[in-house]
Recover the amino acids of this structure.
């Protein structure tokens, strides 16, 4: 009977480890499948064109900037040469600009760009009803908008709402205007080929014609034309999946290692008997590793199919939350689950290697030991390692006082990780005293249950520390990550509104940015971002007005010169007439070409001026966002910060060269009513509300990413808590029977187990909270010093309460289950 009970206890102790391995393999399978599926997809609007040409892209693919477009004249000359290539039946330059449909004063979700009608053929689109747009003020809409020909609509453009008449509907999606309306640079040239033409041969001939002026794309390579926003989203999703895979691997190794180390210690008598019977260390080590190998194979056999089933729903969730574009689909590859299974086995073996070595050192006399007293709860090596981690955390904290920006957050994270390591290593020393303090309020600290809890923790400090360590890690990680995001969000929000001395803030609402009409309606301070090009490399820039001078610090030169009329430039605004001018969106007229391009005065950040050799008074030939050449003359160098970009221009110049530029946010000195920006895709907020919450898409994705990391890490940690408590109670069956024979009732024994488990969990949670608070306090203090105003340390109390509550409930249940089940398994002597 005792042997049967021991076998059942052994099976129970291995169940948690098997589940952990299965979950790890499932996570690796899902991440592997989704990582392999994260490939660019050809946009539908170019699907019918077998050969596409784009300008040469920037050298850094992670710049997420559109390649410098061809100017209209250069694109026209290139199109003429391409039309002469044998097999080419049509050459179609593409024009596009920012536009969103307004119907009855409300934004219609969906398309955010309008295209020239002649490019509709590249996607195979045809008119379903009505006629094609031709004159100014005419538009054709996709059938999904549900608006018939003759309807009157507005398009929200970069300058504001513009009236249009619907002339036709298209058998697909999109916003299409006449070629006379859509102007500006040309980002893509599409080709149509004859029925008998060989696309490969046509592409080769086209490449000879294009030369160094562009890149020819065919087949799957046309996916490079996916929108920059989709490419950036796909890159963010890649980081998320990579982080999940790395976190799953790391945490599973940690949990497997700690679980097998604890299990090996619980089985000292069993291993001692093997040594007593003549087993040599190599045999014991091989036995332990062989058992782990079988567990790894079984866990992989369970986890790999589960990962295959979960990949589809996970892909849908990534699309809904914004970590992958709408075109994302799962590509199932058999090699992925096989590799995940192999990785699971390797993870199990790596995690159990230290436990196997320790098992081989168990001496034969261990079979004769009955007591579970820790005569040396902390070895000398463990004590030295814990002390070193603690000293390292203090050193990193001191270094954090000299850090700034993102480095400060990194230092806070490093300090927290060192504190977690120190807390885990020194837990056997810290727990007895902490539990003693925790139990003082109960029964005056002298009740029988209280005394037994204290003694059990004191004499089995390592066992208690093994149970507290996963809780410490879980609480520290969840509170730290959540608190860091909230604290830094508050900092950046406070930073922006403090510098601008704002009372109200206006942010986009359903749009990628704010139009000029919204900016004018609000007033206040704002910038108009754009991109210039040094050859093909992007140069972030922004347009400002004299109003923004109040937040800029001049090191040399004059900001007044920034707003002088550029040579060869016409920046008089065009009066809206219900149609777009050739430059794109009712913007000021485009620059007049001249030798070397018009000369534009600019101010540059001091760091940029030093690194790029843009000294005061220097001139630099660059290209504008429409592809036309311009010459920049440095008239001021700025110091301090924060600056919106390395290069600042007059706002009117930015509007002239970039008809689709949008303002990200406006800081107003007076409160703004919702009626003032109605129908303009804008939403007013108080400065306090803006500072307290992230408003842009990046902030939202950071929060989702944070929740995902917390969920995965907390899930693994909770598995460790359950598994450790199951093994802990299983290994104490003899102690519990002694208590029962000493006169304790079954309810008292169960109460003692629950009380001891709760004390260990709460103590571990307190240590984890202390670690997180120390790191967050250092982070908030450093940010406050940089900003000059108090940045609050934000502790996610809701996350903390939920984490501790779940840990407590699961740990108590896991501790009581073996005790409740032992009555049926071990007979009358059981609990």
């Amino acid at each position: 009977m005792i042997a049967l009970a021991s076998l059942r206890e052994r099976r129970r102790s291995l169940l948690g480890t098997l589940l952990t391995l299965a979950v790890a393999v499932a996570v690796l399978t899902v991440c592997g499948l989704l990582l392999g599926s994260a490939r660019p997809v050809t946009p539908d609007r170019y699907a019918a064109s077998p050969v596409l040409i784009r300008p040469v892209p920037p050298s850094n693919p992670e710049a997420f900037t559109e390649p410098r477009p061809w100017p209209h004249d250069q694109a026209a000359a290139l199109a003429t040469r391409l039309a002469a290539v044998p097999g080419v039946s049509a050459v179609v330059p593409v024009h596009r600009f920012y536009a969103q449909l307004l119907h009855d004063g409300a934004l219609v979700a969906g398309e955010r760009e309008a295209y020239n009608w002649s490019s509709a053929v590249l996607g195979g689109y045809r008119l379903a009803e009505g006629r094609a747009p031709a004159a100014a003020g005419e538009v054709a809409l996709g059938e999904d908008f549900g608006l018939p020909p003759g309807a009157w609509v507005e398009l929200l453009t970069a300058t504001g709402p513009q009236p249009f008449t619907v002339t036709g509907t298209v058998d697909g999606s999109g916003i299409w205007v006449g070629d006379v309306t859509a102007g500006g640079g040309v980002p893509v040239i599409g080709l149509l080929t004859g029925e008998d033409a060989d696309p490969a041969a046509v592409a080769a001939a086209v490449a000879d014609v294009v030369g160094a002026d562009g890149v020819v794309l065919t087949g799957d390579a046309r996916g490079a034309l996916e929108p920059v926003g989709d490419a950036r989203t796909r890159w963010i999703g890649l980081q998320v999946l990579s982080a999940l895979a790395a976190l799953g691997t790391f945490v599973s190794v940690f949990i497997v290692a700690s679980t097998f180390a604890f299990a090996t210690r619980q089985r000292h008598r069993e291993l001692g008997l093997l040594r007593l019977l003549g087993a040599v260390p190599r045999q014991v080590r091989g036995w332990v590793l062989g058992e782990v190998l079988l567990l790894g194979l079984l866990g992989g056999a369970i986890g790999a199919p589960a990962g295959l089933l979960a990949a589809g729903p996970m892909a849908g969730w990534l699309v809904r939350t914004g970590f992958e574009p709408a075109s994302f689909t799962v590509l199932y590859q058999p090699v992925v689950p096989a590799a995940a299974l192999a990785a699971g086995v390797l993870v199990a073996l790596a995690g159990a290697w230290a436990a196997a070595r320790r098992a081989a050192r168990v001496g034969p006399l261990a079979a004769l030991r009955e007591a579970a007293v820790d005569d040396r709860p902390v070895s000398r090596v463990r004590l030295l390692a814990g002390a070193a981690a603690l000293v390292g955390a203090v050193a990193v904290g001191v270094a954090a006082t000299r850090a700034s920006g993102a480095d400060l957050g990194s230092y806070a994270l490093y300090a927290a990780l060192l504190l977690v390591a120190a807390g885990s290593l020194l837990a056997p020393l810290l727990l007895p005293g902490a539990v003693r303090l925790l139990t003082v309020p109960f029964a005056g600290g002298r009740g029988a249950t209280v005394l037994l809890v204290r003694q059990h923790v004191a004499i089995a400090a390592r066992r208690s520390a093994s149970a507290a360590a996963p809780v410490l890690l879980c609480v520290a990680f969840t509170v730290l990550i959540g608190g860091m995001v909230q604290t830094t969000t508050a900092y950046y929000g406070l930073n922006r509104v403090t510098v601008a001395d704002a009372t109200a803030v206006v942010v986009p609402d359903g749009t990628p940015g704010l139009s000029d009409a919204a900016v004018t309606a609000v007033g206040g301070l704002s910038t108009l971002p754009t991109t210039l090009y040094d050859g093909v490399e992007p140069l972030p820039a922004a347009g400002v007005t004299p109003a923004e001078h109040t937040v800029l610090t001049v090191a040399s030169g004059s900001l007044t010169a920034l707003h002088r009329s550029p040579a060869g430039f016409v920046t008089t605004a065009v009066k809206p007439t219900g149609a777009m001018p050739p430059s794109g969106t009712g913007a000021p007229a485009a620059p007049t070409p001249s030798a070397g391009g018009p000369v534009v005065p600019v101010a540059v950040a001091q760091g940029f001026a030093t690194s790029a050799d843009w000294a005061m008074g220097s001139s630099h030939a660059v290209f504008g966002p429409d592809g036309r050449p311009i010459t920049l003359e440095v008239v001021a160098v700025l110091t301090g910060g924060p600056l919106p970009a390395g290069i600042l221009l007059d706002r009117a110049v930015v509007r002239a060269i970039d008809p689709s530029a949008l303002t990200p946010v406006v800081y107003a000195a007076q409160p703004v009513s919702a009626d003032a920006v109605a129908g303009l895709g804008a939403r007013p907020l108080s400065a306090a509300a803006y500072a307290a919450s992230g408003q842009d898409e990046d902030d939202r994705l950071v929060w989702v990413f944070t929740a995902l990391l917390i969920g995965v890490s907390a899930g693994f940690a909770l598995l460790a808590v359950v598994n450790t408590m199951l093994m802990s109670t299983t290994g104490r069956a003899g102690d519990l029977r002694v208590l029962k024979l000493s006169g304790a009732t079954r309810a008292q024994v169960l109460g003692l187990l629950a009380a001891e488990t709760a004390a260990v969990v709460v103590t571990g949670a307190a240590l984890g909270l202390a670690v997180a608070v120390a790191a967050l306090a250092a982070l908030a203090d450093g940010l406050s010093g940089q900003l000059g105003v108090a940045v609050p340390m934000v502790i996610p109390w809701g996350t903390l309460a939920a984490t501790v509550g779940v840990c407590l409930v699961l740990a108590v249940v896991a501790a009581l289950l073996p005790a409740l089940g032992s009555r049926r398994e071990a007979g009358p002597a059981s609990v």
In short: DSSP finds 19 helices and 23 strands in the chain. The first helix runs from residue 2 to 37.
